[in-house]
Amino acid sequence: MTDTSSPPPAAEVLPRSASPVTPINLVLLSLLVFLVYLRLKPAKQQTLPKPPPPTVFRTFTPPELFPYNGLNGMPVYLSVRGRVFDVTAGRNFYGPGGPYANFAGRDASRGLACGSFDEDMLTKDLDGPLDTLSDLGDDQLEAMRGWEERFMEKYLVVGKLVAVGSEEAKAAAAQK
Amino acid sequence: MAGVVEQLDSLIADLLAGWNIYTTLLLGATAGFVAWVIYEAQDADTHPLLLARQAQASYVRQPGESAAYRSPEVPHGYVLRSGLGVKVPGAPLYSAGKNGDLRDIWRRVTGEIPLEKNVPHAPASTTAGPGTATIMTVFGSEGATEHSIAELTKEISVIGQHLKDHGAKKVALYLPNSVEFLAALFAAAFYDFTPILIPYNQPHPTLIELLAHTGADSLIAEAGSIPLADVSKGVSRLRSVVWTVEKTSRHMDWNEVPEGIGGKIDVSVWHQLVQDQKNGKPELPQGSGDAPDIIFLWQEAPGKPAEVVQFTQQNIAAATGALISALPSPQRISPSDTFLPADSFTQSYTLCLTLAALFSHATLVINSVAGPGVDLTLASRKVAPTITVISAETAAKLHSTTTASVTGGLQKLAHSVETKSLTAGRLPTDSFISRVNAPTRAAIGTTPGKLRLLFVSERAGHNTPPMSSDDLSDLRIFAKARVIYALTAAKVAGAVAQTNIYDYRRGVTPANKHSHFGVPLSSLEIKLKDTPVHKTTDDGPFGEITVKGPAVAGGEASLGVNGTFREDHTLAYI
Q1: Residue of B nearest to A158 (CA)
Q2: CATH superfamily, with its number, for domain A58-175
Q3: B-chain residue closest to A55, CA distance
Q4: CA-based angle A36:A42:A46, to the nearest 5?
Q5: What are B450-493's pLDDT values in tens digits?
Q6: pLDDT digits (tens, 9 = 90+) for A102-124
Q7: Is A50 in Cβ contact with B424 (below 8 Å)?
């Protein structure tokens, strides 16, 4: 009984003094440094992508307007009473394969006035004078004006249409 | 499979075995840092994408010029702002209001036309009726003394009637910033003569030449500031002179006319005219015809040749309305603001902002220490303004003197902490850190920290010192206020373009060059016309700045300087 109640042996190993360099400390320290770096990093300015450059207003003659019918990646233009409208937004109607595709790249005034998409509403001779619309009645001109107002509200005016050989065509060609 | 999991397990156990007091401290620090970041996170004053594209360009441009750029307040297809939108009492609530002119601004000052409802910070309507603006003047080292609006109305009617009786058609005002200046300006609108605003402190030969060139037939000036004999010899059309006399010199007799002039010139004294009519009732004419034009002189410095510009009342009203609506409604001039113009009234930008302050029933404090190069600390010595207008020279001087006093690492650290806050899009406020370690502030006003808005005007073509975007950001910290940089020009009333009030971006333009000027005002649109050197291409618009709109003298004018619109659609010099 006497020997078994000896006091427990003194702890042989002293408690290890806490060392700051342990794996977990290094992990946590690097995490803290990384968070502080993220916080102090100068933020990048937010920008928006550059918009498309504005379209240049142009004086067209009928042969120059003709390629703008939506084929080969060209935009779709049509002309009403001397004003050229960019109707690429209405490609489903005026682009290739659409119901009004005849109007693309042409002077559509007579067709809109008479409400017809036939081929004979368009001027055949692109080098000739523009269609004067002098033989149209009042209600047809009224209809065309209504169409023109709708176009003015919906689409952008990007040019004007003049006949080949007229004064404005020569001035525009000289400026280029 | 089981072996991998066991290895992973023992790896993690080994890692966690090294847990000690330092680990707990580090974990606490990380958690505290994350919590602090979440706690002090605030939204920017405005969405950064709103600053990424500011002005609106039209979709079509004519060859030889760029697209037309407008403020987002007036999109393409809408009319530009052409006036103040004055609604007389009794008009339907949602009517547009008429353009208005200086007479309507004075009627608003007296309370005849009340402020709109729902104006922030407006005093609650009392039984005394609609409120009025407050006009005070600072005299030297005394504080500000308030003027009675009824007395001012009487002065306007007396002076206007006097000049009208003498057949004055073009009255030259050669005064420093003072309440007499404003009274004469309003009298011109009511009594139908054209005021010519001559910048103060001219050498006498230049003054005589300017008076002769503009065809003045009357003159209002400070007594003793000009030699009447020389002026009457040089200006043959001069017929009447009104002296304004400061209070301390009123005992002297200023009615004397030097010899040689004879009966040609009639000399009167302002305070005597007002005193003679003391018992009369102030009655302003109620006519509604067109009020006459105002002639401004655009001059680089006193003594240099001046460009004569004639603005109609609509130009001034459009510019004032555009300056009012350029600020978002929480930031607009309100009846609780104190407005101190520290630049001369002969600049149309300062005058239009002063009229805007009067129109909004703010407290206007007039100090004759005002001009292009004045020291803002001196000008604001006895008042605590909340909004002020200064010229680019004053801003440069303020910046350089305050930067020179930023010494020591701690102040620089505080400055850079606040700069970081500005770059993140927030105006630095009194946070714990800035109270512990405050950055250097400029001494503006008696009560530091009341200034909330600082307008800085740059004059096109006048070799003014450039304020870069870094300088403007430093000014925001020094003045602890928002700073707006505006481009002004000769033929444009008010400003051509003004930066967004919440645009604190730095480094967007090269240092040592002018910062960008923001968006055009809503009273005009800007195009850049091709010059032989600068042309507009698909890469970007470059050219000579041309403006068009109701605020431009003659409808359309070219500024004579080249500019471009940057990626974020703000105007800048090339």
Answers
A1: B60
A2: Cytochrome b5-like heme/steroid binding domain (3.10.120.10)
A3: B60
A4: 130
A5: 899 999 999 998 989 999 999 999 999 999 999 999 999 999 99
A6: 888 888 888 888 888 888 878 88
A7: no
